[in-house]
């Protein structure tokens, strides 16, 4: 009888230990999402953020979408390591596809693998196309070619995807001179052509203007957003998204 009680006690102890272990398991963002409105924020440091030094727009956009009562899931193979307050009783969705300092060529090299791992998004938020190419003196023509190739790969992964591509916000005004200004100005204009040429019957590439009205007061440093800048970018995205998200 004593031996049976001991076995029963050990079995119960093991069961509770297993339950506690399951409760501490964190979500695996390598498992493709099955949610409605899978949104992939794509780009470099303006997507990634680096709290408290500078902000990503993602948190402010997430709050706007929560307030809009949308069902959605940010997807990507990168998790934000910063700390964010809960909002409306929910924890911030940390998944994204932003990598600080990466050029369009590096994004092009990685995008197919990221889509394979995270799953094909319904919507891509393509941030500051060619921004780091400009800052590091890369070829403008190559940057445009890379942006088009990135869109091709995304559309192959999901022929029905919506891609929202930025007319990128400027850097601090004293930096926007010479070749850097020329690069930004050309990309702002050419993004319109890229969107028109890359749109299909089932996959729309939509331009969002992040340049008009963006000022130095919205920057934490030469190129990255402060909180007001993040809110500015988030609101511009939301104005486009609210007419395109599935309810």
Walk me through this protein's architecture.
The chain is an alpha/beta fold and 247 residues long. The chain has one domain: SGNH hydrolase (Rossmann fold, 3-Layer(aba) Sandwich). Helix content is 45%, strand content 12%. It has 8 helices and 7 strands. Strands 1, 2, 3, 4, 5, 6 and 7 form a 7-stranded mixed beta sheet that branches. Helix 7 (178-198) links the parallel strand 6 and strand 7 (205-209). Helix 4 runs parallel beside helix 6 (140-157). It starts with a helix and ends in a 6-residue tail after the last helix.
H/E element sequence: HEHHEEEHEHHEHEH
Q: Strand tally, please?
A: 7
Average pLDDT value? 89
Helix content: 40-55%
Regions with little confidence, pLDDT below 50 for 5+ residues: 1-28
Global morphology: globular
Q: How does CATH name the architecture?
A: 3-Layer(aba) Sandwich
CATH class: Alpha Beta
List keywords for this structure.
247 residues, alpha/beta, Rossmann fold, seven-stranded mixed sheet, 7 strands
């Amino acid at each position: 009888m004593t031996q049976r009680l001991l076995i029963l006690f050990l079995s119960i102890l093991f069961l509770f230990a297993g339950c506690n272990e399951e409760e501490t398991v964190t979500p695996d963002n390598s498992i493709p999402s099955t949610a409605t409105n899978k949104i992939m924020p794509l780009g470099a440091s303006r997507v990634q953020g680096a709290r408290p030094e500078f902000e990503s727009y993602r948190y402010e956009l997430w709050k706007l979408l929560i307030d809009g009562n949308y069902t959605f899931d940010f997807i990507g193979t990168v998790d934000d390591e910063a700390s964010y307050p809960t909002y409306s009783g929910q924890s911030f969705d940390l998944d994204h596809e932003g990598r600080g300092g990466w050029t369009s060529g590096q994004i092009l090299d990685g995008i197919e693998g990221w889509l394979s791992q995270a799953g094909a998004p319904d919507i891509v938020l393509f941030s500051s196309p060619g921004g780091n190419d400009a800052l590091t003196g890369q070829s403008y023509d190559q940057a445009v070619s890379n942006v088009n190739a990135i869109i091709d790969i995304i559309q192959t992964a999901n022929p029905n995807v919506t891609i929202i591509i930025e007319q990128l916000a400027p850097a601090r005004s004293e930096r926007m001179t010479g070749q850097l200004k020329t690069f930004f100005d050309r990309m702002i204009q050419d993004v319109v052509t890229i969107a028109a040429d890359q749109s299909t019957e089932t996959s729309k590439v939509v331009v969002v203007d992040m340049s008009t009205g963006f000022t130095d007061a919205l920057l934490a440093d030469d190129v990255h957003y402060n909180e007001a800048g993040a809110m500015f970018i988030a609101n511009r995205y939301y104005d486009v998204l609210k007419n395109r998200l599935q309810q």
